[in-house]
Amino acid sequence: MTQDRGKTDEGWDPFLLGGVLLLLGIGIIMVYSASSAIAVKRFGNGVYFLNRQIVHALAAILVLICCRYIPYTFYRRVAYPLLCLAFLVLAALYIPGVGHTVGGSTRWLRAFGVSFQPSELARLALIVYLAYSLSSKQDRIKEFSIGFVPHVIVFACFTLLILLQPDFGMVAMIACIGWIMLFIGGVRLSYLLGSTLAILPVAYYVLIQAGYRLKRLASFLDPWRYQSDAGYQVVHSLMAFGSGGVLGAGVGNGYQKLFYLPEPHTDFIISVVGEELGLVGVCFVLGLYLVILWRGVMIALRTQEPFGSFLAAGVTAALGLQVAINAGVALGLVPTKGLTLPFLSYGGTSMMINAVAMGILMNISARRSGPSEPWTSHGRTRGRKRFSFVSR
């Protein structure tokens, strides 16, 4: 059916849909396996986390379906309202009695028994904002005051609020997403490299101001030396992978999840997969993510309308970075960060935001621009290349 001028709905993308559904199914099984002992100890109910994860998964599917049928051009119209909403929700964390502190970090809002992590919404809002801004400024994207400075100011405002939580891992992830999107959008590489060099002293200062971050860095370089302290998580994660071998110990037969591996159902769910399903299971899970990322890259490349192309690139980069950081932490390849594994880890906020992102990506995939109708918010693209970095 025709939904927009020059655009037709081409149905569901089976690779994206199949990948997400398989990950949700595996996630339900692995969350139950990883959390049952913890659930009995904390709540006296071994299926506490399982029941909630099933609800999260069903809600994520419903959200994905809804977003699949919302024309992605809608997000162009709400880019600034969404950005303002995300900023206000982040700022609300610092209102006494509103923000909820866990483990020394104020990252959650709670209302009516539901918890929400504003930084997840901020990540999506920044992607939509960048996609809109980059697509509407293509004629002057290489100018310092047009293509670079406004975006950096917006990112600086958001990262400051997230740093105050503190959540250094989310700041690093958002910075990487922004860098990638600005690069794809055609911002001069010299500006991006220069800003990276300028940020390094600031990042170093933030690092040395918090003793626990220095300990994490030291444990990253030599986790076995700090296995009773900062390296405890990584050491037990590596032990889980090692004991799993090629085929794994079998679902439910893992040992490290029994109060050795911290938060096995959230940040270290891939470690439980490694122990119980082995190398084969880990490769299968990562293979599903690779399929989704491959489809995302192909959708971004083939979409003729710049806003849709940049939006697809942004949500794909965000998912890829989240997977890479989570798996990298579990394998001791990057310093410890508190990021979940999309669609697999226990949790509602991250799953809902990722479901929205996948719904957007599926809508972009289904609504291809016809060859005679590529356009931007300023009209026809006049044959302009979608990804400006190809002709820097």
Question: How would you explain this protein's 3D organization?
Answer:
It is a single chain. With 392 residues, this protein is mainly α. The chain has one domain (2-391). It has helices at 14-43, 48-68, 74-77, 79-92, 118-136, 144-163, 168-185, 189-209, 211-221, 232-244, 269-302, 306-330, 349-366, and strands at 2-4, 7-9, 99-102, 105-111, 114-116, 367-369, 375-376, 379-380. The strands form three sheets. It has a three-stranded antiparallel sheet. Strands 3-4-5 form a three-stranded antiparallel sheet, with no helix packed on it. The protein has a two-stranded antiparallel sheet with strand order 7-8. It is globular and about 60 Å long.
Task: Sum this structure up briefly.
By secondary structure, this protein is mainly alpha-helical. The protein has helices at 14-43, 48-68, 74-77, 79-92, 118-136, 144-163, 168-185, 189-209, 211-221, 232-244, 269-302, 306-330, 349-366, and strands at residues 2-4, 7-9, 99-102, 105-111, 114-116, 367-369, 375-376, 379-380. Helix 12 (306-330) runs antiparallel to helix 13 (349-366).
